[in-house]
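Researcher: Go.
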Amino acid sequence: MDIQDLKAWLELPRDIVILSHRNPDGDAIGSSLGLAMYLRKKFHKVQVIFPSEYPVVFEYLDHVKDILIYDLKPNESKQAVEKADTIFCLDFNGLDRIDKLGEGVQFSKAKKILIDHHLDPEPFSDYEFLDTTASSTSELVYLWIKEMGDIDMADVRIGEALFTGLITDTGSFKYNTRPMTFRIAADLKELGVDDFYLQDQIFNALKSKHLRLLGHCLANRMEIIEEHEFAIIHLTKKDYIDFDIQRGDTEGIVNHLLYVKNIQIAAFVTEQPTIIKLSLRSKGDISVQEVATKYFNGGGHKNAAGGGVYASLHDVLEKLKRVLPAYTKK
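Model: Structure:
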């Protein structure tokens, strides 16, 4: 499928499902909702589906409560995928990232459109709009709407959703940016998007327990390896109970490690019920995507990646301390 085929396909009203990955972040949510609002303007029937629940901090976005959550409504989610004649896959490039929904997508006869900025996509789609240099999938959704010749259909609500993705995937424009990122941000501001309002909604909506958790992480769970220029924070299963940690509560904690002068790699390691999850961040040319892929069954971007392994917390922490020095030396 090329862009002209896709334009022709979308000239008629379609039954569309938009999917994004488990544990959706601001970019997954913003890109999905922004695309959905645009497609509804084109008179398509659209349903956004996530495998798991989204953080409540993003409830300021229009239509966020219309999102279907597979974990809560599996049968309804499966039926929507089965019924769809068009499936958009946003912010993921492998069907394992959407868990049990992946099988339905794999065997669906619907047209499959992938919009993403991650490396090494699996060949499951009919049409791809990919750019690994893009800041976010929200940036690519904006560019795709422009490619479709419909950028004049963008409005403030669509802009708020896409700007949310820009803010969250760049850490408020601190990393993963390129000139195009700022051009799109400027375009969205000209539409009337209030970026201060969005920043306030995203970053100034913490509960007191979030500050106590952050304090615990920095005071009791942080390890700075100065000679090798990396730092690690870990959380145990007991920490999850003691601080009543829910989905989204640990978002952004890993970034605090990079505030330390000369720290090049930050690792945030959490002991889940059956798996150890990792979030990795880096500065400059250091690829934590390579670290995540090679050692921790993960992937992501050059400066922001993650993974998960079935091992003990102690073994994962020791492995990090063995492999990271080789990357900071580079």
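Model: The two ends are 41 Å apart (CA to CA).
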